Amino acid sequence: MAGKSEPVPGERIAIHPRAGTIQLALLAVIAAGLLLAPQFLYPIFLMKLLAFGLFAAAFNLLLGYTGLLSFGHATFFGGAAYFTAHAVKEWGWPPEAGILLGVVGAAVLGLVMGAIAIRRQGIYFAMITLALSQMFFFFCLQAGFTHGEDGIQSVPRGRLFGVFDLSDTMTMYYFVLAVFVLGLLVIWRFVNSPFGMILKSIRENEQRAISLGYSVSRYKLGAFVMSAALAGLAGGVKALIFQFATLTDVTWQMSGEVILMTLLGGIGTLAGPVVGAGVVVTLQNYLATSDFPVTIITGVVFMVCVLVFRRGLIGELLESAFGRRFFAGRRTRE
Amino acid sequence: MTMIFGIPIQALMGQLLVGLINGSFYALLSLGLAVIFGLLRVINFAHGAQYMLGAFAALLLLTVGGVNYWLALILAPLIVGLFGAIVERTMLSRLYQLDHLYGLLFTFGLALAIEGTFRYFYGASGMPYAPPPQLTGAVNLGFMFLPIYRGWVVIASLIVCLGVWFMIEKTKLGAYLRAATENPVLVQSFGVNVPLLLTLTYALGAGLAAFAGVLAAPIYQVSPLMGTNLIIIVFAVVVVGGMGSILGAIVTGYMLGVVEGLTKVFYPEASNIVVFVIMAIVLILRPAGLFGKDA
Fold first, then answer.
1. Which domains does chain A have, with CATH numbers?
2. How many domains does chain B have?
3. Of A122, A134, A293, which has the smallest distance from its Cβ to B119's Cβ?
4. Where are the transmembrane segments (chain A) (predicted)?
5. Distance (Å) from the C-alpha of residue A328 to the closest C-alpha of chain B?
6. Which of A41, A54, A158, B294 is placed for a possible disulfide with A95 were both Cys, Cβ 3.0 to 4.6 Å?
């Protein structure tokens, strides 16, 4: 988010000499954990975690690296879920083509919404994306192919590339894991590309980026479409995981949820949104059995995060002496 | 039966009235949003929740305390305003130094927490609130029957909107407020208590939302979610109007309410989204909004 940057801290913590090796080792442990996880945990739950993790990471591409707060990302997530579900169920498309349609559809929606919303900045941007996504919600409520309140149900998972039978839960899990890793790699590459660097410069100081000759609106729009497409990837996969697409995924509450995931995990960090998504999804899963409404918890967590915990879980970790010693000491932003 | 553009005049007038009533709520709410935003630079996402709190305050005052409508019309905004003041003083005021988006996110969380709490205790279904006996019944205007309460809503909201506009533009307190909007540091150096002004402004905005809530209680049912969808439409209204001008917020509110009402007559399928479509068109043609000063 475009804010005041803090002065460089006086104290410096030396990076651990073998920080690189330790990071690789940690990555290997996480990878092994993800590969083995379905042996110990409910696979559908894990797949939900991965889908929402990717969704939040895609959202963070916009908020964390471009400084644009979109309050309408449910449109891309839920919209793609509808497109994928419709293509797979009604047209008999294979799953990979269905997901691709979801991604393309989300990108087109992102192009339209982005083109309108980037005409204003800051708070207005947030309100415009919210209003446009509410419009999309009403469209989905009335359009025929979404089946209104019922949603698209019993979507077949099909055979991936005609070979892998996704109705097998384990096959599906590894497919979702592959999509998740691929999505994160794309985000990582994107953020560290020259394009990503320009986005960060826009976040830091838009006026200066303009004066340097960058066509800021075009870069913003590019980031918006990219973020929408990746959110669409998550949405399309989600439709196949749960085998349905419903109105819930296009509501503004969903847009709010993804903001919370990112905020809780750490805005502008690569792992933060995924961790945040993990916490939120786990919490929802846990609370689903009690009659205590999730919205109260969500709201209070939101308030607490904004008031005292703006760096998020991963942000705080990176900021701590431990994090700076082992993770190159990169300062995160509030 | 008299017809205009192939539509019976009764239907047209009926929807026009509905539009005018919705417009009254849009105007009251977008006015509150604009006043708060002008000084605090916070988009108050909890505005819908405060509207709902107003309606609930009226309902609870009646069922628990036996307080009638007229007294509730004054008491409920005061209660919600006090609540707003406490929230501003204890929490919101800590966020002024940060990016404005944090104010939006905080009030979003606040709205979720309030609505979730009321939903937990009162369920999601609406509860009726009877209009006061003085305002029941209808008058025959010749071309249509006008329910008296609905006429009252339009008049009451007009009076309050114009009153707030007068207070901001013509009184000394309003002058302080406008000056603090321009340059808070300078105004504070003149000895005006700006933090207090900020608290009062937030309380005023919350009170206005609550007033709208009490007005709405007899028309719509009192339910925890009554403000949720409304606030998003009001955001669109605010974007269309541009938050630069108080009068702009009021005029745009009524205007879009009427447009929405007319859409219900001529093309009902689009009535849910017409405000958003207008917002998109305005943004393309005039990004600063109809009454906005800067982009």
1. 19-326 (1.10.3470)
2. 1
3. A293
4. 20-37, 49-77, 97-116, 123-145, 172-191, 221-246, 258-280, 292-309
5. 26
6. A158
